[in-house]
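so ive been stuck on this for like two days lol. basically i have the seq below and the ligand is magnesium ion, smiles is in there too. i just want the complex predicted, nothing fancy, no docking runs or whatever. if the output looks off dont worry ill sanity check it later, just need somthing to start from for the group meeting slides
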Amino acid sequence: MLVVENLEVVYEDVILVLKGVSIEVPDGSIVALLGANGAGKTTVLRAITGLLDVHRGAITKGTVRLDGDPIDGLDAPAIVRAGVGQVMEGRRIFTEFSVEENLRVGGHLAPRGVVAERLERILELFPVLAERRKQIAGYLSGGEQQMLAIGRALMAEPRLLILDEPSLGLAPLVVQQIRDLIVRINEEGTSVLLVEQNANMALSIADHGYILETGKIVMDKPAAVLREDEDVREFYLGLREEGAGSMRDVKHYKRRKRWLS
Amino acid sequence: MEVLLPALVRGLGIGSTYALLAVSIVVIYRATEVVNFAQPALMILGAYFTSLFVTSIGLPFPVGVVAAMVAMAAVGALTERVAMRPLVGQPVFAAAMVTVGVLIVLTAVANRLIGPDILTVGDPWGLERLEFGTIAIFQVDVAKIVLSLGAIGAVGLLLKRSRIGLAMRATSLDQETALAQGVDVGRMFSLAWAMSAALAALAGMLIGTGAGGVEATTALVALKALPVIILGGIDSIQGAVVAGLVIGVAESLARAYQPEYAPWLGANFDIIVPYLVLIVSLMVRPYGLFGTPEVQRV
Ligand SMILES: Nc1ncnc2c1ncn2[C@@H]1O[C@H](COP(=O)(O)OP(=O)(O)O)[C@@H](O)[C@H]1O
Ligand SMILES: [Mg+2]
């Protein structure tokens, strides 16, 4: 289980971006972390995976624990070794490498003996990648690149898979595929922390959801509850009941009060 | 033929050592995007260590060469750790300037170690020649070609085929993503410097063989690597090989024929030939012969 407690993160020593974020990812679950652009979602993930210092950021308060052991002091490779895999925002595949080379980099820390076997398993899971095994990854479509990024992360056989906006910029049909894939990966025993702006997709498969606003968690509820919550529906699912116009100001006030409390 | 063939072989010999030096710069550039100006000092120290191990201590020549390469690999890794690592995340221009500082420090060390003498590296070739009828070529040129291209091939193979080579290439493409896959990026930097310094050591030894000998000013030969990497494209090993050979052969042919056919160009004209080749080819291909364009989705 991943436990993030009271996390405070500062960039460049002065820019306070996370102001006491706490989230939990129980074993075997899918947890969604939602929020608008700039809320701090990626920063939470960087803090978990040891990539803050690349961005001149640092944890100034709080802890990150994996199964009780603190991992906030470890470097990125050590965190991968501890069983946390990630698919970074924007896919970040190695465009000049072949599909297979991309996957092999994902297996960098795997024991040498198992790499070939894992490679075959991943290619089985992603038939599109198997067809393009020797092709240069830069020429794959956006959806295929996302699958490659996910496959690459799976090469390390993580216990916890972290995905940063995997649906970004993909066609609805492809988003569906990615969604089904995440469900399948989860069913095979990997916990998932799913960061999304696309709340619709994330809440449809998550067990639990958090909503992050300007560095603070403003909602922390089971996904089923969030799916029905009016404010979430309005602001994150893009659904608004007709005829609610007259209540708008009141609701607006209520929402602000509750979310910023 | 009596002039052309030996001149060609001599050109390929010296050209392959230029290529070796250029590749040693490319290896660091690819890993860190830093142009390492300290390479001449690494080269001369490598020649010094070879001389120390073979001539002074009396190790067999091949053992001494390998030992010098290993010693220089350690020097390279240490230099990276001490001088370069603190600069990770700073502009690469700043890092390149620091390599100039490293050049100055290591050159001072080399001058101190070598002193005013001319060292010999104890190579088995000396001025031995292979005679084919009326054509005679120096063994040392053959040795330069075989060892340089062999070492470059080994590095290429390591980068292309091995797990560590893949991790190094991944690091050179996208450090953060490599980190996120569990690649210890800092170790890749050290490794690149170690490999580069070992290649430079080999180049230094080769330049010191035959009629060469090693003195403190031999380091200047390494400046020839600059036109080579510019011509070859600074991120390309193949480019460095082709450009190194082209420049070596051009230089050697100029030395062989220019005094006879174009004496009005003056003495020592061959020294500026690499730069002429560079200028002319950059007019045709401004990005070098082998600069890799980024793959983009269409
Ligand atoms: N390297 C950085 N230096 C300074 N500020 C940053 C850096 N990275 C992100 N930020 C700021 O932190 C805030 C949160 O960014 P981010 O975590 O990327 O949000 P999200 O992923 O939710 O869009 C934004 O205001 C962003 O401008
Ligand atoms: Mg983000």
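The mean pLDDT of chain B is 88. The longest strand of chain B covers residues 129-132.
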